[in-house]
Design brief:
This protein is α+β, with helices and mostly antiparallel strands and 366 residues long. The chain folds into 3 domains: 8-91, no CATH class; 95-143 and 291-347, no CATH class; 145-288, no CATH class. It has 8 helices and 19 strands. The protein has helices at 8-11, 100-111, 123-140, 217-224, 231-237, 304-317, 324-345, 350-358, and strands at residues 14-18, 25-27, 50-54, 57-59, 62-65, 70-73, 82-87, 97-99, 145-151, 157-159, 164-173, 179-181, 183-184, 193-194, 212-213, 263-267, 270-273, 281-288, 298-300. The longest helix is centred in the C-terminal third of the chain and has 22 residues, at 324-345. It is extended. The N and C termini lie far apart (65 Å). 20% of the residues are buried. Residues 227-239 have low confidence and may be disordered.
């Protein structure tokens, strides 16, 4: 069975038909597996995701049935007319990945059965350990860094993505498109604010639980600073209270404060920005565990063997009556496979590295 699903034309995002006499209906055959159209077999292609042209002229007079994957023209095409359906956003680059379903099927074929390493195992067990493998390998082996770009709203808060695990870096984009790195705040936060009455007694709800405010006074006061100033004045001030060069009585500036890009802190599912970041474009680069949605559960082919070894070791290590030498063997093989995957995915190119290292041979004049 070939690994490339569909034709090369379909891979690049188009499919053409040569009309016969009176033909109006054309059935699309784009691959509909979990790394094909839409990356999700349960969500068929929508009419808003492709365009239709007849002999090179775009048309809008057609209907589309997402269940049967059929495009029907309002008027019959002539003999020899070329009907071209083009995806607006083709899913190119998917060949370098293999789906979780394929990983599980390949493992069951290669490792499970009579006279094989694992005589019998439930598919649910394989699925669990496969997802655990993707999750753990996403942290330090896979290319799992994702990014989001937003304009900071007046609330100065950005919701964490659904699959957020930890951030790599947070920056804002200047007028030249350059990323300006933001640093975490150490002198403020958004603690849980407990509601109190006029006598400073705690307030409780009908269920007996203590009542809290959505935002603390610390965050309200911090986010309110610099508001009402002109943009230029805000940029000049840029939260100088947090970048106080005399903090602690030290002579000279602290290296961590040797920038005026702005600061942030993360609390209660939000990234809170300093007031100077209002209306600026912010980029969040973060680490995902790779299993938040069905679409994301794919493995780069450079690390495919590492996932197989991980699943095999996990199954053998959690069973009784498995010889210890067998567990130790697959533990070593898993370690070696992960190391190989890291080397492959490091993507080091000798020509690029050589060009960078040429700068290290420059003489430094004093």
């Amino acid at each position: 069975m070939p690994l490339l699903l569909g034709t090369q034309q379909q891979y690049y995002g188009s499919e053409s038909f040569t009309a016969t006499a009176g033909q109006t209906a054309f059935v699309l055959t784009f691959p509909k597996d979990n790394i094909g159209v839409n990356n999700n077999p349960t969500m068929p292609l929508l009419s808003s995701e492709f365009s239709v042209a007849v002999n090179g002229v775009a048309i809008t007079t057609f209907t589309y049935n997402a269940t049967t994957f059929t495009v029907t023209l309002d008027s019959a095409a002539s003999v020899g007319d070329i009907i071209l359906v083009t995806l607006l956003i083709p899913n190119v680059g998917n060949y370098q990945f293999i789906s979780l379903t394929s990983i599980m099927n390949n493992f069951l074929i290669s490792y499970v059965g009579e006279e094989k390493i694992i005589p019998k195992v439930k598919r649910a067990d394989v699925a669990f350990h496969a997802q655990r493998a993707i999750q753990e390998l996403s942290y330090d082996t896979f290319k799992s860094t994702k990014s989001q770009e937003i304009e900071v709203p007046p609330s100065l808060k950005m919701a964490l993505p659904h699959d957020y695990v930890n951030y790599v870096k947070i920056s804002w984009i200047d007028t030249d498109g350059i990323e300006r790195l933001l640093y975490p705040a150490r002198k403020t936060g958004n603690p849980t604010a407990i509601l109190q009455d006029d006598s400073s007694n705690y307030l409780f709800g009908n269920d007996g639980n203590i009542l809290t405010a959505s935002d603390s006074d610390a965050w309200i006061r911090y986010s309110a600073q610099n508001q009402g100033l002109a943009v230029a004045d805000v940029d000049k001030k840029l939260d100088l209270a947090d970048f106080d060069t005399l903090a602690g009585g030290r002579f000279g500036i602290e290296p961590e404060n040797a920038q005026f890009n702005g600061i942030f802190f993360i609390d209660n599912g939000y990234i809170h920005f300093s007031s100077s970041m209002n209306t600026k474009t912010v980029v969040l680069k973060y680490i995902s565990d790779g299993i938040a949605t069905e679409d994301e559960m794919i493995v780069h082919k450079f690390a495919e063997e590492a996932v197989y070894k991980w699943i095999a070791h996990a199954i053998l290590a959690t069973r009784i009556n498995v010889p210890e030498y067998m567990v130790a063997r697959f533990k070593k093989e898993r370690f070696a496979a992960i190391r190989t995957a890291k080397l492959r995915l490091s993507n080091l190119k000798i020509e690029e590295l050589t060009q960078i290292m040429r700068g290290k041979s420059k003489w430094i004049k004093h």
